[in-house]
Structure formats: structure tokens, C-alpha cells
Amino acid sequence: MTTAKINISTIDDVKNFVSIVTRCDYDVDIISGRYAIDAKSIMGIFSLDLSKELTLNIHSDSCSDFLDEIDKYVVK
Questions:
Q1: Model confidence pLDDT, tens digit, residues 42-75
Q2: Whole-angstrom Cα distance, residue 24 to residue 22?
Q3: Residues 6 or more apart whose Cβ sits within 8 Å of residue 65
Q4: Distance between CA atoms of residues 35 and 67, nearest Å
Q5: Mean pLDDT of the region 7-24
């Protein structure tokens, strides 16, 4: 499993992020506090507090292409 910190704050960011994640063959979860939601669920993402940094759990060890695609959302 690979973990990254992300920040998605606008509606357009959420839509773009979900469109990228849905192309993945593996599971991707977003953790916010005690909540864990499927990153492929646009409604699930909108239920989170998007003003805070989120933790992304990618259930794959070979996900460098995916990380390159979401680079603008990754907190450095």
C-alpha cells in the first residue's frame, strides 16, 4: 500500500480527481479523521471537509503513473 497527503478544495478539483481515480484498477481510499471513503465516489468526497489535508491510501505498490497524474493534488 502507498500513502500520500492530498488537498482537493474546489468542485472542479474533485471532479477531475475522481475521473483520474476511476481509471485505476486498484482500490484507492481517502482518510479524513475517522472517516474512510472510496476515492472513486464523488458523493463520498463531497461529504468530507475539503478545507483540510486528506490522506490517500492507494492499495497498490506499483502506482507511480497514478501518482504522476495526481501530482497537482499531492501535498509536498
A1: 999 999 999 999 999 999 989 999 999 999 999 9
A2: 5
A3: none
A4: 22
A5: 96
